[in-house]
Design brief:
By secondary structure, the chain is an alpha+beta fold. Helix content is 16%, strand content 29%. The protein is built from two helices and eleven strands. The chain has a seven-stranded antiparallel sheet. A four-stranded antiparallel sheet has the order 4-9-6-7, with no helix packed on it. The longest helix has 18 residues.
Amino acid sequence: MAAFDRPDLLQLFPSFVWRGQLKPEEYGPLNTGLMHALADMGAPLEGLAGGENWQSDHDLHVRRDFKPFAEWIHAAAANLLDYLKVASKDVAITGCWANVNAPGTPHRLHSHRNNFLSGAYYVQTLEGADTINFFDPRPQAGVIRPPVIEATAENTEMAVLKVGDGTLLLFPAWLQHSVDVNRSSRARISLSFNLMFKGFETLARPGWTPGKVVAG
């Protein structure tokens, strides 16, 4: 049995999440500018009723006030595509929008169809509103779920990632994710976006009505 003392554990078909974190001196000015830009658009940064969620139109990446942010998204995507050994770095942002989640508001399980990458950037987070959940994409993985003595990356169906002001996430657009109820005292404010290889981006336009406040 000695041959099994140190077996190889092969990670097959991994699902990645790329996480970048700006330093306070970097995200401080950036987030202040984003908050001002959102306020100028009429975003309800304060005053939403508990359980309400507001989303902007999906064209923030083409607005002048959001240009530095869009440039950072492209730089991060190029870094990730290089790591993945993807030949083409010619991607376009197909949609970028703001999310304002009042206390008491969750965001349901979902994925972003017709895109290659999706992402989120966190502008205002507080304790109780500083995580995102990612779910095992393998359809057969939940057929048998024996009890475990400790949750690990190999035996759980959900990964909970901690985020904070200045955190940027990139992940496959097909990877299902959700956000728990905002248990803080203020709105959670983030920017979400999608990326697709140029020539295919016309498939990827989001389909909701922008600027509409909805109950959670």
